[in-house]
């Protein structure tokens, strides 16, 4: 979602900085800079997995994750989240063509729901998924395969995975999706997306319908991001 269909505008980094500060990692120091670089590099991965890598023990990771979700929720509640241009229209067009659309995220369900509510998107897609709904988050293929099962899609080759991060591309490739498209509206650039296995790189998600072509080829479109 964030970076693919939703304009994040640095909210992940701001929420991380708030969370890290509660664990004694203040902005401006070497430790904070190193951790922030890791957060940027792993955009798209399940957030609790990121915090486990950064803070080591489970208790600190869970505390950091809870603080991150709280801080991000406050930013969303303050109106600092918006749809990317053409995102809503793209989802509506895909569904009108008979395709199933699933919105996935690396955030926890509470944060995903807050974003959906803030944008008025609760009923926009056929299904929304977060890591806890599927078992594991990106780069594992669990959310894509859960989307296939729940939408009753016939084959993984009929799935299009779309996202702004290398982790989205790896996830799509591991799931066997027929289209794995990167978009340049979020965390990672053209080179990073292609290196991670993108079959297409688009300027934005608004180009997706033209990439898929006429309905019947790829009926399910999954949109990722943070």
TrEMBL record:
Pfam families: Hydrolase (PF00702). PANTHER family: PHOSPHOGLYCOLATE PHOSPHATASE, PHOSPHONOACETALDEHYDE HYDROLASE. It comes from the Bacteria. NCBIfam families: HAD-SF-IA-v3, PhnX-like. This is Phosphonatase-like hydrolase. InterPro entries: HAD-like_hydrolase_sf (IPR050155), HAD-like_sf (IPR036412), HAD-SF_hydro_IA (IPR006439), HAD_sf (IPR023214), PhnX-like (IPR022468).
């Amino acid at each position: 979602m964030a970076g693919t269909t939703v304009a994040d505008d640095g909210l992940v980094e701001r929420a991380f900085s708030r969370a890290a500060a509660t664990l004694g990692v203040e902005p401006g120091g070497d430790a904070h800079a190193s951790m922030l670089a890791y957060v940027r590099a792993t955009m798209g991965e399940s957030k609790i997995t990121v915090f486990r890598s950064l803070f080591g023990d489970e208790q600190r990771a869970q505390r950091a994750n809870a603080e991150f979700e709280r801080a991000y929720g406050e930013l969303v509640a303050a109106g600092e989240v918006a749809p990317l241009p053409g995102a809503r229209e793209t989802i509506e067009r895909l569904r009108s063509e008979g395709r199933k659309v699933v919105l996935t995220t690396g955030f926890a369900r509470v944060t995903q729901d807050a974003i959906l509510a803030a944008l008025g998107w609760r009923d926009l897609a056929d299904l929304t998924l977060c890591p806890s709904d599927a078992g594991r988050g990106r780069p594992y293929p669990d959310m894509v395969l859960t989307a296939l099962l729940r939408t009753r899609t016939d084959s993984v080759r009929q799935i299009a995975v779309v996202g702004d991060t290398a982790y989205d591309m790896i996830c799509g490739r591991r799931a066997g999706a027929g289209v794995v498209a990167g978009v340049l509206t979020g965390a990672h650039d053209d080179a990073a997306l292609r290196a991670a296995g993108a079959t297409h790189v688009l300027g934005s998600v608004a180009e997706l319908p033209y990439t898929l072509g006429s309905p019947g080829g790829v009926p399910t479109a999954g949109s990722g991001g943070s």
